[in-house]
Design goal:
The structure is a single chain. The chain has 492 residues and is an alpha+beta fold. Helix content is 58%, strand content 16%. The chain contains 12 helices and 12 strands. The chain has helices spanning 2-15, 18-71, 80-92, 122-128, 168-214, 231-281, 287-318, 331-348, 367-383, 430-436, 442-452, 480-491; strands spanning 96-101, 106-109, 133-137, 142-150, 157-166, 327-330, 352-357, 362-365, 390-397, 401-408, 456-462, 466-474. Strands 2-1-5-4-3 form a 5-stranded antiparallel beta sheet, sandwiched between helices. Strands 7-9-10-12-11 form a 5-stranded mixed beta sheet, with helices on one face. Strands 6-8 form a two-stranded antiparallel ribbon. The longest helix is centred in the N-terminal third of the chain and has 54 residues, at 18-71. The radius of gyration is 50 Å and the shape is elongated.
């Protein structure tokens, strides 16, 4: 039972294979021309044989036609010689000969059926107009030839001869030739099957190389592949290489992310362990020290909790179908509320916090996620600023987008670090960041929130001169599927 099932599965796979399709195409390409050639040869033979037969009959009729004209046979004069020649002509071709005079009356019928009868037909009229005609009926297998009896001097047609001859010998010749061609076809088809089978194996072999390389698990992410046998296989190899590099980057990123998460989560735990061990190993710890250690432990717990919350936020935003609650939101009021929440932090650090909004803006956004993104930008601008510095937040719009700009007079970001600041856990100055606090996930969350709105975020910075983040968000939100459909329509 298992063997039958495997056989059916192999048969099904072969039925859907490229190799079978190529095999069928090659057979069709070879067999169809053979059949067309066969039909052409047989048709050409039949036409040529009929034409030769008609020419032979016509030439012999012309010889008798001259005698019919000079002897006065058409006008009623009897001639045993002409009668004999006409009947011999009919016997020669196993056919029937009819002689008509200018009154369309049959002077002689070798079958003796229609003598002295009047015959008017299309072929007869054409012959009396001086045309020689021939009519071949392949179904009935006979050939009818008409030859006018015409005076060469006066060009007057005095009568005509009609001869109908069987063409069974032509059909037999066609059948014999067809048999020979059929035998040749069988031989050629067998050769073609062998050649097609070999060529299909040869043609699909590069694709087998691709499969073999892809199934090599040991080197799946280690090295690029190149199969230049065909343009298509090379394109497959290049597509695989691009996918391999992306997977490698994702794998490296995943491992780095896991390592960073482990490190970030273990650091507060290690601090708390040290503080807890210090308390347990000491006797009669003063209340002031006890309170200080507990305060430090509480801070580490808050920090651990913040890391976990940021990780959860980032994971939710990175999902293929993230939860997003879009509604019309007053952006001016949203930004104003963010600054009110952060103003105490700015005042504590003696940082001037200014909002410049030029127009009232109402847009379709997820207020919670966008608030989180802008809060991260403004909070970073405050934390990484200089003493007595400033943070300017401006809000503007055009017909399709609204723009949020966050500028500061802070320490700036080195140019070589700017491409990496949106990566998870990336810190420009790790020692300074540790003093200030934070999880290293803020800008990654910000970028993801902006991308969820199909917006864009850019950074401009010079060390010692401050940093500017610009965010562009569409006024009307479009779901990803709708954007894809609009993109396809635009391409068409």
């Amino acid at each position: 039972m298992v063997t039958i099932s495997r056989f059916k599965e192999r048969l099904r796979r072969y039925g859907k294979s490229l190799r079978l399709r190529l095999f069928v195409i090659l057979l069709l390409v070879g067999i169809l021309p053979l059949n067309v050639l066969k039909i052409g040869v047989l048709s050409s033979y039949e036409k040529q044989a009929v034409k030769q037969r008609a020419d032979q009959v016509r030439s012999q009729c012309r010889l008798i036609a001259d005698q019919l004209l000079t002897s006065g046979y058409l006008n009623g004069s009897q001639s045993d010689v002409i009668d004999s020649e006409v009947r011999m002509l009919g016997t020669l071709y196993s056919g029937r000969v009819v002689v008509l005079n200018s009154n369309f009356r049959i002077v002689l019928d070798t079958y003796g059926i229609d003598t002295d009868k009047v015959l008017i037909a299309q072929e007869v009229l054409e012959a009396f107009s001086g045309e020689e005609t021939s009519n071949y009926n392949s179904n009935e297998q006979f050939l009818e030839v008409t030859v006018p009896v015409r005076d060469e001097n006066t060009q007057k047609t005095s009568g005509m001869m009609i001869i109908a001859v069987p063409t069974t010998d032509i059909r037999e010749g066609r059948r014999e030739i067809s048999g020979v061609i059929n035998l040749m076809q069988i031989v050629l088809v067998l050769l073609l099957i062998g050649v097609a089978f070999y060529l299909t194996r040869l043609l699909v072999r590069p694709f087998g190389k691709v499969t073999a390389r892809l199934e090599n698990d040991d080197q799946f992410l280690e090295e690029d592949i190149s199969i230049p046998d065909y343009t298509e296989t090379q394109m497959l190899a290049e597509a695989y290489n691009r996918m391999r590099r992306r997977l490698k980057e994702q794998e490296d990123s995943r491992q780095e992310f896991v390592s960073n998460v482990s490190h970030e989560l273990k650091t507060p735990l290690a601090s708390m362990k040290v503080l807890a061990d210090s308390l347990t190993t000491q006797e009669s710890v003063p209340n002031e020290v006890y309170r200080e250690f507990m305060t430090d432990m509480s801070s580490e717990i808050d920090r651990e909790n913040q890391i976990i919350n940021d990780l959860l936020s980032l994971v939710k935003m990175n999902r293929k179908s993230p939860d997003i609650n879009i509604r019309e939101t007053n952006i001016n009021e949203m930004i104003d509320l963010i600054l009110k929440r952060l103003r105490p932090i700015a005042d504590k650090n003696n940082i001037e916090l200014v909002l410049e909004d030029y127009k009232p803006i109402v847009a379709e956004v997820d207020e919670t996620k966008l608030t989180l993104a802008i809060t991260n930008l403004v909070e970073n601008a405050i934390k990484y600023n200089k003493p007595n510095g400033w943070v300017h937040v401006s809000l503007n719009m055009d017909s399709s987008f609204f723009f949020i700009k966050v500028e500061d007079s802070g320490i700036g970001i080195p140019e070589e670090s700017q491409p990496y600041i949106f990566e998870r856990f990336y810190r420009v100055d790790k020692s300074h960041s540790r003093e200030i606090g934070g999880t290293g996930l803020g800008l990654a969350i910000t970028q993801q929130a902006v991308l969820m709105h199909h917006g864009a975020i850019r950074v401009y910075s010079k060390p010692g001169e401050g940093t500017t983040f610009t965010v562009r968000i569409p006024m009307k939100y479009q779901a990803w599927e709708e954007k894809q459909e609009d993109s396809h329509e635009a391409d068409e």
